[in-house]
Amino acid sequence: MFARPPGGDYTAQTLTGALQQPNFPVLGVGRAGQVVLAWTETPQSSGSEPVSQAVVRASIGTRGAPLSPATQLSGPTEDATWPTAAVTDAGEPIVGWLAGGYGSGPIRATVGAAAP
Fold this sequence. Notes:
The protein is an all-beta fold. It is built from no helices and nine strands. It has one domain (about 20-110). The two termini are about 25 Å apart. The model has no long low-confidence stretch (mean pLDDT about 80).
């Protein structure tokens, strides 16, 4: 993630690892500056291990400060896609996604930073 205050310098924070493939980043910002950044991620094989299905991960924080370490929100076998992110008026992050891969499956969501 790269961010900057108006007229300021960009700062960088790495939220994914070398063997991960992040996709579909989405950002939700609350009225008081709360931030939730969510994305899908497909870990890549490290040799003998098979490639896992896509999962939804998210980091939370406030504008101008580093975000929390990424937390996996979806289950490891959901093959999660198309995340969306928002922040409630009370400042709680909400992340939703489609489980079951591209095209069909149940819609899942979580409120707050805890994984389901």
